[in-house]
Amino acid sequence: MRSFDRNGKASGPRIGVQGSVMGWLDPWHPECSRTLMRTGEGRVLGPQDSSPSASEFVALLRTLGADFYLHHAMPGDSGIDRLIDDMAAAGLDFLLGNEYGNINGPFGETENRFDIPEAVAERAAATGRCLGLLYDETEHLQLHPSMYLDYHPGESGRNPRRHQWAAVDGLSLQESEDAVAEAVRRRVAGYGGGVDLWSEQVFPVMYHALARGGMNPCPKLLKEEFASVQVATALGAARQYGRKLGFCVDFWGQDVGDWFTRIWGFPGHSPAEYRSALELAYLMGPDLLFTENADVLARHTDAGFRLTEFGAVLEEFTQRFVPAHPLAYGHAQADPDVVLIRSDDTEWGLETHPYGNQALSFDYRSRTPFKVFSLMSRGRIPPNGLMTFLPQYTYHAGLWPRDDGTVKRLPLEQGVDPGLRTRTHRLFHPLPNLLVLDERAGGKALGDPGLIFLAGTRMTPDCLQAVADRVRGGATCVALRWLLPDGWDRDRKDGDGRWIVVEDLECDRVAEAAAPFLGEEGVWMQRFGDFEVRWTDAAGDGVTLRHEVTRVEGRSGTR
Fold it and tell me: Is it true that domain 14-329 has CATH number 3.20.20.80?
């Protein structure tokens, strides 16, 4: 069984579940959930199951071993008050999310961002059970300012570009980043500082800008990302800016298989991959993690809830895995051997406009961090981007027809026919003990790495000075020439360390410098204080991971 503190809360990461989006009507908002879009499919999808009462759903959360519930508020529905009261009465913590407002907006003259009303946030916080407010795929909506607006032709015709945080068109790159961070800071201040804000993200960009503004990183796993890039970036942002860390284990994805299926690519991952993602997220020592969504975990019938194979995985995780693996460390203790310092232009591979700014474009310098990830992963991460939206990948779930005939066949209890099953997504893209920081990082955030990369388009004098201090102490720094001041344009020794200055990271000198830090072949490792967590591809399928947590005597880096 799980252990609990003196206040009756489970120790270690809080574990939660998000509500249903198509399995059943929301128990607290049944009428709203008949008419509002609850997914990004661009249409209202009716319930596939009978709808549970609030008490039945709370009982399901307990069966699954959840500590908290992620509830997406529905704009204009007063049922949120009852939800808050019911969670408090049940002794369950909760997060309030904004996804349905984003989808059914837009809100604001220049932004498409639904904010939980301040009075609701204050009331939620007063219960002592509110873990914060979650902004769903918030970087996605900043980068793609027409996102969801096509669902509302009247509104989009009036103002077809509404960024999530700041209208950046016409600003410089630095001004765009600063505008986003400042907009987040104002929103945090508007809630009075009494409630945490979480940036749930699918793209491995903007973590640092949002954290600088005051948000806690909450990366998605199992989406179209390379998990090791997501983890290294979010861990680095949380470390650098002193934020909490969450994980969203997201069922939506690329593949179809022989598993219970609600709709195309939902879930787009096997039960084995779901199990690995839960364990991976937990062992990163976050403050919380949750599963998106509950309707993959169970079906509601006249006899009550019946767990699917995915629900059985979560129940086993909370009831067996977590009690058997108490954590003696947390994410804030992440201690890197390798640090990538890069300015975040928000480039991930197919973008054309930094921060959604249509006046700006990327150049080759913005893409240089890709080469670091590719090098340090021994080529398992491609050098042309950080998502599986890239041309070399196929998004199989997107090939299913979106028509009424297909909808009537759903859900599929045993998935799709054998000839239709696909496997594109992989959870395992191993990196050595690496963190990503931005160009504002100081000595405390840097730690004591043996290898430092300087990439991207921008650098600050203070960060460069912190790196120079580490080099004199023995680190090797591989730096792109344009990030260095005059007189620093050559390879040289500096104290006990050295500088390698290049125009292109794909060269023998860089490969030779990186070789001692690549770690063991086929192992993904992250260190937290005195503990090393190592993952291997147990079945060779990229989704069934095996972990090992070991205690080390002091730092066990290569230096």
Answer: yes
